[in-house]
Design a protein that fits this description.
This protein is of the alpha+beta class. It has helices at 6-30, 76-105, 114-130, 135-195, 202-218, 281-316, 376-381, 386-389, 490-500, 508-511, 522-562, 566-600; strands at 40-46, 50-54, 57-61, 65-72, 222-225, 231-235, 238-242, 245-246, 249-251, 255-257, 262-264, 267-269, 350-355, 359-364, 369-373, 415-417, 420-421, 430-432, 438-444, 450-454. The protein has twelve helices and 20 strands. The two termini are 31 Å apart. Residues 562-599 form the Flagellar basal-body/hook protein C-terminal domain.
Length: 606
């Protein structure tokens, strides 16, 4: 038979159930803006009924309700999709951030970048081609060349700093990952202990999932949950967390990279010493950005190589106006008329050679030693030669054409002694004195070319046009060119041409050379590089926008399950409030009945 007081217990159970429901509603409302919080629900169920025997037989009488569990609203499939897309989102944002910084380095919108410096350099050569004898024009070329070199070096150094900054960011990310992985391990322990007793560690699970959210932004993470509620985290084949154990990540020892003037690093697993390679997230983006940024240094280095090789070769083919002219016919080195050996960029005792196989080969002509250089090492070599920047150095600037007869075919005569030559006395082009000294050479090869030379101790020549002498060649000694002393600007034209014209429009001295920047002009090479960069940055920004829309959809899907809805919670609050009040009233009614029964029984007739 059911106890007389069983109704009180039934109502107390109802009060407890509704009170716990109200507490859960309050917990939801309080955490509606808490990051990572999942809405919780108190699940109520009827308590086991009691068997009551009556005259009609046995009956089952309920004993009220009880809360069987408080569970969180969570969709594991939405979580897995979020973690996957969050890793992709972190990757795209990491790449886009690097492009933004690189674009700011090569930004020419304020007329302070490489393009502006290159245009100023071109304009200086162009001006010098028309006013080659002007000290001002020649000095402007040197100043513009210095500015161009410094601008390239500044850009390369800034990219270098960006790479170092990326390594700093990676180091911070590794430290953050270690801290978060340690928190996952601690939460695994606590969750397993709480749920082993039958409870639900809802808030701890929310904290753990929030940590996974943060981890997936940095790298790709696959989550597995074991039967005891622990997480196993696997990234790109590496198990980062396995229940109550984890790996420790750290940066490798620095690896000196002379090519780019910096130290490279890897992420390694401390316990095994193996390299951890992130397969997604910001970390993957940062490592890829480092490789791309090195490519931008290489592009600057190729421009520097072009200046050190092709542009230098053209400069050395010309003549200055420093009075180093009128060399005699019999001089042992007729190239002394030109600026041979005087680089525009780099030291004059260095030779710079570019090959596709070896890259830039630098030879010190004083020691005859060679060294292959690449990357920022090349950019650091880029400096206007000290002979040009010294006092009166601008007079050595090669603005006059340096083609010699020996370059296009030669006229040779048999040599008796330096400055003394013999030839057929019947040769109308050669006149000698009684001692056999040549006093006049006059070669008329038609409308295109006239050579005139005179002088008993040696021959002076005047080069007038660009005709070839190959069909007139004989054996003997070459006749050099006697350039005039007022720079004619012809070599300055060729120098300017190198900057803005294709390879086939440059001078014969450099036309067939292998160029570090290919067949195009320096200007077109740089513009192509910047266009490619801008296109890549624009495409990445488009991917960021697209992924942002994907993330919004996934977050909406996720929040539709675990988000706190105020209208729903207030409705539940009213429901539990009314239930609590109703149970209380019913309890009062039962209490009055029992009061009457206890205090009123046996008092009749007194």
């Amino acid at each position: 038979m059911q106890s007389t007081f069983s109704g009180l217990n039934t109502m107390v159970n109802g009060i407890y159930t509704n009170r716990l429901g109200l507490n859960t509603v309050g917990h939801n409302i309080s955490n509606s803006n808490t990051e990572g919080y999942s809405r919780q629900t108190a699940h109520a169920a009827a308590t086991p009924s009691s068997e009551v025997y009556t005259l009609a037989g046995a009956s089952q009488v309920g004993n009220g309700s009880t809360v069987t569990s408080v569970i969180r609203a969570r969709d594991i499939y939405a979580d897995r999709q979020y973690w996957k897309e969050n890793s992709t989102n972190g990757y795209y944002n990491g790449k886009a951030n690097n492009y933004a910084k690189i674009e700011s380095i090569f930004n020419d919108s304020k007329n302070t970048g490489i393009q502006n410096a290159m245009e100023k350099f071109y304009e200086a050569w162009e001006d010098c081609s028309t006013t080659a004898s002007s000290d001002t024009s020649r000095q402007n070329v040197i100043n513009a060349g210095q500015n161009f070199a410094q601008t390239l070096q500044i850009a390369a150094n800034q990219v270098q700093e960006q790479i170092n900054s990326l390594y700093d960011d990676i180091t911070l990310s590794v430290e953050t990952m270690n801290r978060l992985l340690g928190q996952v391990v601690e939460l695994n322990k606590n969750i397993s202990g709480i749920e082993a007793n039958g409870a639900n560690a809802n808030d701890l699970r929310d904290q753990r999932d929030l940590i996974v959210d943060q981890l997936t932004e940095m790298t790709n993470i696959t989550v597995y949950e074991t039967s005891n509620g622990m997480y196993t985290l696997v990234s790109n084949g590496t198990t980062l967390v396995n229940g109550i154990t984890k790996v420790d990540l750290e940066m490798s020892a620095p690896k000196n990279n002379k090519e780019y003037g910096l130290n490279d690093y890897d992420i390694i697993i401390k316990q095994t010493g193996t390299i951890y390679s992130p397969g997604g997230g910001e970390l993957k983006a940062q490592f890829e950005a480092i490789a791309e940024d090195k490519g931008y240094i290489d592009e600057v280095a190729r421009m520097a190589t072009f200046l050190l090789t092709t542009l230098n070769d053209q400069h050395k083919a010309g003549y200055g106006i420093d009075g180093n002219k009128d060399k005699p016919f019999g001089n042992a080195n007729p190239d002394d008329d030109a600026t041979t050996g005087l680089n525009f960029y780099g030291e004059s005792d260095y030779e710079f050679t570019w090959t596709e196989a070896d890259g830039l080969v630098v030879k010190n002509t004083t020691t005859n030693t060679e060294e292959k250089m690449s990357g920022i090492q090349i950019v650091d070599l880029l400096v206007v030669n000290g002979e040009l920047t010294a006092v009166d150095g601008h007079k050595k600037l090669a603005t006059r054409s340096g083609e010699r007869a020996s370059d296009m075919g030669t006229i040779f005569y048999e040599t008796n002694a330096p400055g003394v030559y013999t030839t057929d006395k019947n040769d109308p082009n050669i006149k000698t004195d009684g001692s056999g000294n040549v006093v006049l050479v006059e070669v008329d090869l038609g409308d295109k070319l006239v050579y005139t030379a005179n002088g008993a101790s040696g021959l002076k020549t005047r080069y007038t046009t660009d005709a070839a002498l190959a069909d007139k060649a004989a054996s003997g000694y070459p006749i050099p060119v006697d350039v005039n002393g007022t720079g004619d600007g012809s070599n300055a034209v060729w120098m300017a041409t190198l900057l803005n014209c294709e390879n086939d429009k440059t001078s014969p001295e450099v036309r067939d050379s292998v160029r570090a920047i290919g067949k195009g002009s320096l200007y077109s090479y740089y513009n192509t590089s910047m266009t490619t960069m801008g296109s890549a940055a624009s495409n990445m920004n488009g991917r960021v926008d697209f992924q942002s829309n994907v993330m919004s959809q996934v977050e909406n899907l996720r929040s539709s399950t675990n988000g706190v809805n105020w209208d729903e919670e207030l409705t539940n609050m009213i429901m539990f409030q009314q239930g609590y009040s109703a149970c209380s009233r019913c309890l009062n009614a039962m209490d009055e009945c029992l009061d009457k029964l206890i205090n009123g029984t046996g008092t009749v007739g007194r």
